[in-house]
Design a protein that fits this description.
The structure holds 2 protein chains of 2 kinds.
Chain A (H helix, E strand, L loop, with lengths): L5 E12 L9 E13 L4 E5 L6 H8 L7 E6 L2 E2 L5 H10 E4 L13 H12 L4 H14 L16 H13 L5 E5 L7 H18 L2 E6 L2 H7 L2 E6 L2 E7 H6 L4 H9 L49 E2 L5 E2 L6
Parallel strand pairs in A: 3-8, 3-9, 6-7, 7-8
Antiparallel strand pairs in A: 1-2, 1-4, 4-5, 9-10, 10-12, 11-12
Helix pairs in contact in A: 3-4, 3-5, 4-5, 5-6
Chain B lengths: L27 E12 L4 E13 L4 E5 L6 H9 L6 E10 L2 E2 L5 H5 L6 E4 L3 H4 L6 H12 L4 H14 L5 H4 L9 H13 L5 E5 L7 H18 L2 E6 L2 H7 L2 E6 L2 E7 H6 L4 H9 L37 H5 L5 E4 L2 E3 L20
Helix pairs in contact in B: 4-5, 4-7, 5-7, 7-8
The chains are: A alpha/beta, B alpha/beta.
Chain lengths: 322, 358
């Protein structure tokens, strides 16, 4: 296999929570607590989990909006922690992001052409004319007419704005786009358009995606591989087809059980998991999922399971398969 | 509505819990409802709800499906008389227990809302007051409508919180909304909705802000409550998975109109309206990597609707007639109605009734 675009090893991010006056009895929120994954060129990795599982913090670490507490992120084989100057610029150019809400991620005071041109002005020394051409080119890529360039974001619907955000992310010959719930805020019919567009762009440009989401069906549809996160850790990862065919971790099974049917005659799912995600401030001992797990054993509250190869490819962290 | 409904135990129990009794009179019958928004001194009219008709029976769940701006929320607000300023019901009727709610004063509606018809909104923090304890908020309907006080009020709140599966209710009811998780807050809102022993609960996207496992718990809870009490539910959603899981009947809305209405299985098996087909095809299915069926364009702006059928600019099956003439409701038998010229030829298949209105 080719060298991965992005590889993450033992990534941790712990946020301090101040308690008491002089910061005594300081506690930590372990938002990301030892995460490993790699994204190959032209591949989509789906990162799925409920709120508070650390998927957005992981994306912020990749985007250099947070510095990791431990662990390393390697871009095309080189550790990004050492990047400075032009190398850092090259990394920022190659890794872009599309956020969930296209109403807050585009500046209402900027015209579409300026929104898309901004990364080009920062990162390239293209002439004004060349920038204009590139803007028209990426607008065309995302299925918008070039004559929308002088308009402002408020003149567009949610789906069109999301296309503008994708165009901006593509402008700098991007290698990896972090897609943080990019379709959650869109209407159903528009959602399908954007997903198809993203898949089309990947086929034509070979760009990689880190697709963050909570809707299993959407993530499974667009991703080649899926990593399931729970309270800062990956509990299971596998290629999308084998994960759907045979989810192994009880939490993954719970996510599948909670997934909505696509037809009224689909058999009802019995095992809906009980309880809620515990506070990240007081993590359960042993396996983090054990208080909610229907298959918990005595060992689960004592020993934290590590990721082991699972049958059918992929990894799972669960004592059931130890 | 000053009935002697002072029984200390809610939710109200029906004679036939959970049974969709189609032969009985419906609990709610909405006929030809029209709600318009007026702006610029009434010179601009937006038909947010345009001749919407449906019926709801005891123990039944109706799904009101549509994209943003399709009029599903305005339909619900029209039923309970909570329309924002500038919006007015200009035609049609809402028959609830034999009375037309559109003819009632706000004062009369206050005795119905929160008691006989309850509403659950999308964002629980918008429904809960952050300054009051859970007890005070859950107790309010029973205090106001049933004049419960003291110990019986406490017991009622306790009972309601248990009904929505709040753990340790005696402790939780002294807490404030910010101390609860999103799922728990939404269950508190559910408890408030049930407090008056309603016959109809309107749930407007109640699980959109919840995590998937919490959403599944909440939907199961609503189903259990419905089985126990026989309450009729209107479920407003854009999520067809929720419809498949929860609903008996579905009404698909587009640009203020119901474009198709059918029992849930029939709608999923054999959608008649091209928009329904598009919606069903646009949803990713687990284990399928097929490209999604996507229709071009955006939902239309209600202020500037296309002529003829509102869906025709996006419709892959449009014929010339769709651009000029608006289709009426074609009744297809078996409780199915579709508003599309393409089904005109099919209407005699099941029913004698033809085009009912346009």
């Amino acid at each position: 296999m080719a060298e991965p675009v992005l590889e993450i090893r033992g990534l941790k991010k712990h946020f301090p929570v101040r308690r008491g006056l002089l910061g005594r009895g300081r506690r930590w929120v372990k938002a990301v607590d030892g995460v490993d994954f790699a994204i190959q060129p032209g591949e989509t990795l789906g990162l799925i989990g409920e709120s508070g599982c650390g998927k957005t913090t992981t994306s912020k670490l990749i985007l250099l909006q947070e510095t990791p507490t431990a662990g390393a992120i390697a871009f095309e084989g080189r550790d990004i922690a050492g990047f400075e100057g032009t190398e850092l610029m090259a990394y920022r150019r190659a890794v872009q992001v599309v956020f969930q809400d296209p109403f807050s991620s585009l500046s209402p005071r900027m015209r579409v052409r300026d929104i898309i041109a901004e990364p080009l002005e920062i990162h390239t020394d293209l002439s004004r004319a060349a920038i204009g051409e590139r803007v028209a080119e990426v607008l065309d890529l995302v299925g918008l007419q070039p004559d929308v360039a002088p308009l402002f974001p408020h003149e567009f619907s949610g789906g069109q704005r999301q296309r503008i955000a994708i165009a901006r992310a593509l402008a700098t010959n991007t290698r990896l786009i972090v897609l943080d719930e990019p379709v959650s805020a869109l209407d159903v019919s528009v959602r399908a358009q954007i997903i198809n567009q993203l898949e089309h762009l990947q086929r034509t440009l070979g760009v990689s995606y880190l697709f963050i989401g909570h809707d299993l069906a959407t993530v499974a549809h667009i991703s080649h591989r899926i990593a399931v996160m729970y309270l800062g850790k990956i509990v299971e990862s596998a290629d999308s087809d084998s994960l759907c065919a045979r989810p192994m971790h009880p939490y993954t099974k719970a996510l599948f059980a909670a997934a909505l049917p696509s037809h009224p005659d689909d058999p009802p799912q019995e095992r809906t998991v009980a309880g809620e995600v515990p506070s990240a401030l007081s993590l359960p001992s042993g396996c983090r999922f054990h208080p909610r797990c229907p298959a918990a054993m005595p060992v689960c509250s004592e020993v934290e399971p590590t990721l082991q190869p699972r049958g059918g490819g992929g990894m799972v962290a669960c004592h059931l398969y130890g | 509505m000053g009935g002697p409904d002072m029984a200390p135990h809610t939710p109200q129990r029906s004679v036939r819990p959970g049974e969709a009794a189609a032969h009985l009179d419906p609990v709610l019958r909405v006929s030809d409802l029209q709600t318009h928004f007026f702006s610029f001194g009434g010179t601009r009219v937006i038909k947010a709800v345009d001749r919407v008709s449906f019926t709801l029976h005891e123990g039944q769940t109706l799904g009101l499906v549509g994209e943003s701006g399709s009029g599903k929320t305005t339909t619900c607000l029209s039923i309970v008389g909570l329309l924002p300023r500038g919006a007015r019901i200009v035609g049609g009727s809402v028959l609830f227990e034999g009375e037309d709610l559109t003819r009632k004063s706000q004062h009369e509606l206050r005795r119905i809302r929160g008691r006989r018809i309850a509403v659950i909104l999308q964002d629980p923090m918008a429904s809960l007051n952050p300054l009051f304890t859970i007890f005070r908020q859950v107790a309010e309907p029973a205090f106001f409508h049933q004049q419960l006080r003291g110990r019986s009020l406490r017991e009622r709140v306790h009972h309601l919180l248990r009904a929505v599966r709040i753990p340790s209710p005696e402790w939780r009811m002294r807490e404030y909304p910010h101390q609860m998780s999103g799922g728990m807050r939404q269950r508190i809102v559910g408890a408030i909705a049930l407090a008056g022993g309603p016959r109809v609960v309107i749930a407007d996207e109640p699980t959109t802000n919840l995590d998937v496992t919490i959403q599944a718990q909440y939907l199961d809870l609503l189903k259990d409550i419905q089985r126990e009490t026989g309450v009729a539910l209107i479920f407003v959603t854009h999520n067809l998975g929720i419809v498949a899981k929860m609903c008996d009947r579905v009404a698909v809305m587009y640009a203020g109109k119901i474009v198709e209405q059918a029992p849930v299985r029939e709608l999923f098996d054999d959608p008649k309206h091209p928009y329904t087909r598009a919606l069903l095809g646009a949803v990713p299915k687990l284990g399928s990597k097929e490209p999604l069926y996507s229709i071009a364009g955006q939902p239309p702006n209600l202020a500037n609707l296309p002529a003829g059928c509102s869906f025709h600019p996006r419709c892959p099956e449009a014929v010339p007639r769709c651009m000029t003439e608006e289709p009426g409701d074609f009744s297809l038998g078996g409780g199915r109605v579709a508003r599309c010229w393409l089904v005109e030829g099919q209407r005699e298949a099941g029913a004698h009734s033809g085009r009912t209105r346009s």
